[in-house]
Amino acid sequence: MASPSNYSTAPVSEFLLICFPNYQSWQHWLSLPLSLLFLLAMGANATLLLTIQLEASLHEPVYYLLSLLSLLDIVLCLTVIPKVLAIFWFDLRSISFSACFLQMFIMNSFLTMESCTFMVMAYDRYVAICHPLRYPSMITDHFVVRATIFVVARNGLFSLPVPVLSSRLTYCAENTIKNCICTNLSVSKLSCDDITFNRLYQFVAGWTLLGSDLILIVLSYSFILKAVLRIKAEGAAAKALSTCGSHFILILFFSTVLLVLVITNLARKRIPPDVPILLNILHHLIPPALNPIVYGVRTKEIKQGIQKLLRRL
Fold first, then answer.
1. How far apart are CA 299 and CA 200, in angstroms?
2. What percent of the chain has pLDDT over 90?
3. Residues contacting 312, CB < 8 A, separation 6+
4. Average of pLDDT values for 262-289?
5. Nearest alpha carbon to residue 95 among 182, 164, 13, 15
6. Count of CB atoms within 10 A of residue 21's CB?
7. Which of 3, 109, 257, 303 is 20 to 30 A removed from 81 (C-alpha atoms)?
8. What is the domain count for the chain?
């Protein structure tokens, strides 16, 4: 048996993920709804992507942006949920050093990419309602390409220091992460080093990215509401608002789950520690599962495209 002094200086080569440390007996039961939500999210997003690709009438910028959102959802689900289910079903708790920080990078960057995509979609709706005559010249395929590059570059570059800073810390003893996923705080607090800068950077970068997106989304919808209230033609205002309905619902899904997660983390001393862990997992499942369903139900063109796809099959 290694002495305490030898143990404390041994380098960490892998981590152990302990999901719901106080309720591990529930894991098998919890895996059923999680696996069903995962299959729903993957199937719905794959169907939406295939429909947009095969249906020529959907080859428009607004649907390309929706395709980008579906791709981000798929990657987020695949990054988090299979590992969680492997822990629940097969007790495969170990995760390598590099895989842990790769997961951390994807979660941080793709989460902010989703937020940024919602912001671009809000701008698309703003132009469609406030400047309808200029819409075809402003929202083009070229605009979508530039917007996609901006979404990936901005959020990838700002999120990269989070796992880099965390990976450069010294992990000399404890390697048990009391979480189902490699979040920055769950991992970095195992370090022997001072993690003040690490935590500060994630806080500033995260709220700068998410906060700026939220402000621009609110501004876009403020201008949209102002323009709609000026419309005097009967039924025109309702029709204009209905074009924003699906996008607005998606933003509510994304923001509500994220807000609840933040509140529970701030009040962690008053609630069981397993609650934020569960909410973090659900945040990677509920919006991806509901996003394509909302657009499929509320958008006539997508609904018709899915019906055509099903008839082909």
1. 42
2. 54
3. 54
4. 81
5. 15
6. 12
7. 303
8. 1
pTM: 0.90
Nearest residue to 187 (alpha-carbon basis) of 161, 162, 158, 209: 162
* C-alpha dihedral, 163 to 169 to 170 to 175, nearest 10°: -40
pLDDT in tens, 192-242: 899 999 999 998 998 899 999 999 999 999 998 888 888 776 666 676 667
Exposure letters 280-294 (e unless 16+ CB within 10 A, then b): bbbbbbbbbbbbbeb
Distance CA 155, CA 32 (A): 33
Q: Is residue 31 part of a domain?
A: yes
Question: How is residue 72 written in tokens?
Answer: 């981000």
Cβ proximity of 192 and 170 under 8 Å: yes
Return d(Cα 48, Cα 294) in angstroms, integer.
Answer: 11
Domain that holds residue 133: 10-312
Neighbours of 308 (CB within 10 A): 13
Q: What angle is formed at CA 42 by the lines to CA 36 and CA 48, rounded to 5 degrees?
A: 130
